[in-house]
């Protein structure tokens, strides 16, 4: 959230996820509790024995030791999947100290390695994920077929087992009504478009996750290169749309951005959908040079901090939806309004 990275005004983050399973072990959906515990013990030993030290500092988190709220916050920070949060009996997370690497154990597959970088750094994320994958492969016998490649629980991941994705902020393409044409073209070249939390989630706040859809029949480098090429084109389309908006409708865009900034700064109630849209407006205003009193990093943080689990953790209280809407507005005000107006920002 605090990082910048290349093209960070449009690409918020780049992610590589690698799915692997162990040979001669039932996949998680068919495994008994004891078999899942054995897998967890075998894979967490890689971190416990210091084999990951060559790529960073890691801690192991047993998900059954966490509360439901703590697991939800991990989901909102994109460190674990909703599936792992809901099935935590034999699940574990190996997490790097800067949270750029999260390794999920006993999710849909035995092992899921995720590397998350700020900005457009998909090739850098792939390089690190590949190194971590090699470390685990030295310690575990992967389920691999000479013809089909790496075997996974879901057929759509068979082959390389790689899911490469970028999270893009595309407000200008939405405003100029070009987004549907762009997204249609994306799906025709073997890529998928999803919302903030992946498959089945809604694209709120003009945030779109672009990822490869094909894992079988292509090499890892072909997958990464194809995604990189398409994302580079989307970046150029979004930049052109922003320039066109500023040339043709600058006053309307400035009015929209400043209205959203004012509402976020002083509203007493704010639901998650409205906050996502207005945060998107303000972030666009920052990137277009229309707003200078708040940093893009603050807006990135607010997009996560205003999620239900994070809110409840930040205020250390359990809330119903109406209470969350009040607290969400309060948290945003504290981050945006000058300290002298409210007596201090939320730390």
What is the fold's blueprint, element by element?
Layout: E1 11-20, H1 33-48, E2 58-62, H2 68-76, H3 82-86, E3 92-96, E4 101-105, E5 111-118, H4 122-139, E6 144-145, E7 149-150, E8 162-169, H5 171-175, H6 179-187, E9 191-194, E10 207-212, H7 220-266, H8 272-287, H9 296-305, H10 308-315, H11 321-336, H12 339-342
Antiparallel strand pairs: 1-5, 1-8, 2-3, 3-4, 4-5, 6-7, 8-10, 9-10
Function: Catalyzes the specific phosphorylation of arginine residues in proteins.
Keywords: Allosteric enzyme, ATP-binding, Kinase, Nucleotide-binding, Transferase
Binding site for ATP: 13-17, 78, 112, 163-167, 194-199
Describe the protein.
InterPro entries: Arg_Kinase (IPR023660), ATP-guanido_PTrfase (IPR000749), ATP-guanido_PTrfase_AS (IPR022415), ATP-guanido_PTrfase_cat (IPR022414), Gln_synth/guanido_kin_cat_dom (IPR014746). With 347 residues, the chain is of the alpha+beta class. Among the domains are: 131 residues, Creatine Kinase, Chain A, domain 2, CATH 3.30.590.10; 89 residues, no CATH class. Helix content is 47%, strand content 16%. It contains twelve helices and ten strands. Strand 3 and strand 4 form a beta hairpin. Helix 7 crosses helix 11.
CATH superfamily of the domain at 13-143: Glutamine synthetase/guanido kinase, catalytic domain
CATH fold call of the domain at 13-143:
Creatine Kinase, Chain A, domain 2
Q: How is the largest sheet built, in terms of strand order?
A: 2-3-4-5-1-8-10-9
Q: Helical residue percent?
A: 40-55%
Shape: globular
Q: What value does the Rg take, in angstroms? A: 21 Å
Query: Which class do the helix and strand fractions yield?
Result: alpha+beta
Strand content: 15-25%
